[in-house]
Amino acid sequence: MEMSSKLLERAVAEISQLPGIGKRTALRLALHLLKQPKDMTEHLTGAILKMREEIRFCRECHNISDVEVCEICSNLSRDKSVICVVEDIRDVMAIENTGLFKGIYHVLGGKISPIDGIGPSQLNIVTLVEKVKTGVAKELIFALSSTMEGDTTNFYIYKQIKDYNIVLSAIARGIAVGDELEFADEVTLGRSIIHRVPFESSLKNS
Amino acid sequence: MEMSSKLLERAVAEISQLPGIGKRTALRLALHLLKQPKDMTEHLTGAILKMREEIRFCRECHNISDVEVCEICSNLSRDKSVICVVEDIRDVMAIENTGLFKGIYHVLGGKISPIDGIGPSQLNIVTLVEKVKTGVAKELIFALSSTMEGDTTNFYIYKQIKDYNIVLSAIARGIAVGDELEFADEVTLGRSIIHRVPFESSLKNS
Fold this sequence. Notes:
By secondary structure, the first copy, chain A, is α/β, with parallel strands linked by helices. The first copy, chain A, is built from eight helices and six strands; from the N terminus they run αααβββαβαβαβαα. The first copy, chain A, folds into two domains: 6-54, Helicase, Ruva Protein, domain 3, CATH 1.10.8; 75-171, Dna Topoisomerase Vi A Subunit, Chain: A, domain 2 (3-Layer(aba) Sandwich). In chain A, α1 crosses α2 (23-35). Chains A, B: A zinc finger (C4-type) spans 58-73.
């Protein structure tokens, strides 16, 4: 796309580096900003820059947090011995929204993915293993997505902690509540039969 | 969406003000920037801010341009008497890509749209009418999208210039080259029959 302005061209090139945003969308966004008052662009870029510069991570669980120890980790009513292992803040938000989890989290910051150049050393794995070794953690709940990368990451952590006295679990996979069986994929349906639960417990929270 | 960080929350709120970008996408983009080196965020926000601060518009056609008179308007081989009236730079880029138009453009900067609070005074209409009144323009080609807003804008301009000695035309609407008739909408197909062209001329540029 050749443009009549290098300024516009550079802005579009930068915006289209964002994941899922193509050149056409980037141009649409740039033209939108040009039509709006300068204020809007200043607020937008200011908020992004400030976030990137000043963001901090909880010392305990590595979740994004404005304070040194996040609200969840510093909450005395949460069970510090049950740790849910997740990829990023979106998973924490999703599980917190259920209101059903009373333990704490450990945010890895990603999954092991050689294709994307992400190895174990770039993730918060050492501190997790430490929590197991020191006996702080009594149960780990693996809640990474069930992809090859998720499984690889789970297994990498598992190998380092399997000899310690700890309960290991994974979130249940199965047919979503309200979904019809006939539309479920075979792997999910198969798992939901193998990992069936006692009927009485299936009535909880329904 | 409640987040564990006000910094993140504010950035997501700002990003999701962009058209077509919801809260979920905004969060994904913000987390992407947090995973990348600070450089990337600085380049992105720098390019956007610089564009918004320093952008200029061609004195003649009002298209976005880094110089006072854009490349098209200052090109001596272009016919200054044939003016194609378009909405914004995307239309200019699309028509330029065909390589078939040798006239110049007049960029309105939008369409009349009372719903969006855009009246004629916010568009570059006065200078267009001036070009007609002074006799600089011999033909205007209306190339706005055929929506209610486009038609309203065309008609608003038409009323002001209809008494002057000028050829008025509109880009041809019809079945796209290569498209099957059976899949065309009725309005388009109807127009393509009413505005049929001599067979010999239909062979050009095929």
